Amino acid sequence: MTIKNICCIGAGYVGGPTMAVIAQKCPNIKVTVVDINESRINQWNDPNVEKIPIYEPGLSDIVKEARGRNLFFSTDVDKAIDDADMIFISVNTPTKTYGIGKGMAADLKFIELCARQIARVAKDDKIVVEKSTLPVRTAEALKNILDNTGNGVNYQILSNPEFLAEGTAVDDLMNPDRVLIGGDIDSPEGKEAVEALTDVYAQWVPRERLLTTNVWSSELSKLTANAFLAQRVSSINAMSELCEKTGADVNEVAKAVGMDSRIGPKFLKASVGFGGSCFQKDILNLVYIAKSFGLNEVADYWEQVILMNDHQKKRFAANMVKAMYNTVSGKKIALLGWAFKKDTNDTRESAAIYVADYLLNEQAEIVVYDPKVTEEQIYSDLDYLGSRSGDANRQAVTVVNDPLEACDGAHAVAILTEWDEFTTLDWQKIYDQMLKPAFLFDGRRLLEPETKKKIGFEFYAIGN
Ligand code: NAD
Ligand code: UDX
Fold it and tell me: Ligand 1: does its nearest atom lie under 6 Å from the Cβ of 12?
């Protein structure tokens, strides 16, 4: 079976870039990305390709090439479902904020809505692909909904979790370590569906990197991969605190440990804490699943990764207050970086939000600069926490477009995102314009310490 027409439900950080790359690499497949969020679709269709809603290096060029040729963005979900032979579900699966599993389980209401819509609309057989990150055994629920509410057509459900990281999404999609496809490989129809999706990726991914498993292994592998990655960050962050007490340097420890080929050098960078839409949500989901099977030790083991991360964010902010003579009340503090990592405009679960909130509770005046995050987003992130009124956030927090302006007259500067441009700022000029003593807190181990100390900064870095 050859796929000719793909529909992707969800034009977000995963659906948008993934489908853009599929469209670019497979000019014979028509790819339509649909979303209920009209303004997001309008942004994807903006004639100025630099205005697409997601910032990812290299993405706008791909969209420019494929959009209008075989890549389309639309709000007409029904039509795209009807036309497609393969439907990707790439909607959000956030942590539940209500009811059973509140604060832990994944909220699957958007997934279920998609399934019901597909069942209502589809008039011929479809392959439905789980692209969203889902709890293990979600495919079973999807199949039940599709089979029991549909128009008597046949569905094959595949699990094809996405491993891209934001900021490097295009590279990750072009050259993935592996593409995981879970399907019902014991039935001829299931096998055929797996092969159809494999053939799509094989247009640009070497066959040996296309990995096939059963559906449950595929679903669980995604949660496992994120849990392992986050665990490495929490592990090195735990050591960063011990380094600060003992005179060891966490960068040196990470290098020494990472040179062991069994451990490897990646994902050992100490930081102010991991953020992003995935790590916390997926581990909480894993913890919830383990608990629901009565596996309390398994649940506790993984929950510690989150507890350590919460501790790291809080500890960083508390250290700032402590260093500044135990009070930041009325003091201007510049935060450089708001995105959860460099090269993205995504701020979901960014450590910066929590550091700012802590400092605001201590009555600091905050000025934020981030090269890609809008003022509106920064206020919305703070408002979402509900720690104080929207007016209070707007009174205590200023957002500026120039890093030097952010630091002008400040008592302290904190680096919260590792944007490359922060390394080449005129730090002498920044120092000259700050109040003295001028405090500089590096939450990313981005800056070279000796030169900053020589300028005169009171310099603090994670794990040093
Ligand atoms: P997102 O919030 O950026 O995008 C999801 C989109 O789905 C939104 O635009 C929303 O309007 C749309 N949507 C929701 N319900 C819909 C419906 N019924 N019909 C049409 N559109 C609907 O989310 P995201 O970051 O792209 O994540 C999507 C999934 O991929 C999640 O399960 C996430 O865990 C997973 N994932 C994310 C990343 C990442 O880096 N962001 C990486 C791997 C996996
Ligand atoms: C992650 C996974 O890497 C990706 O495979 C999955 O598909 C989605 O979740 P993402 O959250 O986009 O990707 O970015 P990632 O590079 O993993 O960074 C997550 C957070 O950890 C960021 O806040 C980053 O700054 C932090 N981090 C990462 C560290 O603090 N230290 C590190 O060594 C690596």
Answer: yes
Distance, CA 2 to ligand 2 centroid (Å)? Answer: 35
Q: How far is CA 276 from CA 152, 241, 310, 326, 346, in A?
A: 40, 22, 13, 30, 7
Report the candidate in 354, 355, 369 with the shortest Cα–Cα distance to residue 419: 369
Quote the CA–CA distance of 305 and 231 in Å, as a whole number: 6
Active site residue 278: yes
312 with 420, same domain: the answer is yes
Ligand nearest to the CA of 316: 2
What would the two tokens of residue 445 be?
């181990």
Task: Give the end of a domain, one of 162, 187, 213.
Answer: 213
Minimum-distance ligand 2 atom for the alpha carbon of 349: 23
**ipTM score here?**
0.98
Sheet of 86-89: strand order equals 71-74, 30-34, 5-9, 86-89, 126-130, 155-159, 179-182, 210-213
What is the residue-wise DSSP string for 379-409?
Answer: HHHHHHHTSS-HHHHHHHEEE-S-HHHHHTT
**Rounded CA gap, 289 and 283, in Å?**
10
Q: How many domains does the chain have?
A: 2
370 Cα to the center of ligand 2, angstroms: 18
Question: 326: domain range?
Answer: 308-461
Task: Kindly report the pTM of this predicted structure.
Answer: 0.96
Q: Could you tell me if residue 139 is inside a domain?
A: yes
User: Per residue in 17-45, pLDDT tens?
Assistant: 999 999 999 999 999 999 999 999 999 99
342 belongs to the catalytic site: no
Note whether residue 208 is domain-resident. yes
